[in-house]
Amino acid sequence: MEAILDQHRMTVLVGNGEEGNMLAILPAYHYDDTLDNRSEFTKQCWIPAKPETNFCIRYCWNGAASTALKKKAGLFCTLYIDELIVERAYLPLKGINKTGKNREWEISGKYYRGPDGPVERPFTFTETPIDDDADVLDTSKRGTIRVVLHWATPDPDVEHSRDLSKEAADTLALELETAVSSDNYRFQACVGLGVPEPSGVKENNMKVRPIDNKKYTFIFHYAHPDWLVNEGIIPPMVLSNFRTQANT
Asked: Are 3 and 27 in contact (CB under 8 A)?
């Protein structure tokens, strides 16, 4: 099973995020939907958060080009990590065609405007800082990568504010890597932001409004591979492959 979630002709996946290489989709494991109360427009799975590996989020429209064109709308994405809003993106779909061109958008890190041009801090899984004096966490907000999609159309009258400063990115990095106590085994891996690098991301027009009230949610529950195998979510043989790859 791969880290690909589908619904209503929309797809969201988690890839390896390694620059210069062909995208490799992360492995995924079944998530028991009876564990929580979610809407019918929600898809979920487990993914291993192997420390010191980058990842990216990609979303796309797999339906007919005519559907998107008739709606005169594109797909707006809000990306939450540990329930913090990390990024927003808009896929216009106005240039969509049957070949697959202009059907997808990739988010590979936290974007901000630097003094010399756009900058991005890549998403990476990392070891969570340990502090036995750490405050008790609200665990319902930890260990999730949540993508919410909805149809939206351009509207110049929409007020849109978005903090694209370096300071905002630095603050987010600190919030994502909040320390946990040593006995909080479930959260021994977290999402971090890597070293800043020049970004080729183009800023789309974000002044858009929803065309209806439907939202489509895709949740990737992440945890350290050791925890996943101890819980029986990853078979032991699969875990040994993670360790072998980490040592090569």
From this structure: yes
Residue that is written with structure tokens 């809407």 in the block: 39
User: In Å, what is the CA distance from 63 to each residue of 11, 23, 140, 171, 207?
Assistant: 10, 22, 33, 38, 24
Ranking 153-167, 196-210, 232-246 by mean pLDDT, the lowest is: 232-246
Instruction: Label each residue of the chain as H, E or C.
Output: CECEEEECCEEEEEECCCCCCCCCECECECCCHHHCCCCCCEEEEEEECCCCEECEEEEEECCCHHHHHHHCCEEEEEEEECCEEEEEEEECCCCCCCCCCCCEEEECEEEEEECCEEEEEEEEEEECCECCCCCCCCHHHCCEEEEEEEEEEECCCCCCCCCCCHHHHHHHHHHHCCCECCCCHHHCEEEEECCCEECCCCCCCCCEEECCCCCEEEEEEEECHHHHHHCCCCCHHHHHHHHHHHCC
Q: Tell me the whole-structure pTM to 2 decimals.
A: 0.87
What pLDDT was estimated at residue 158? 80
Neighbouring CB atoms inside 10 A of 111's CB total 20
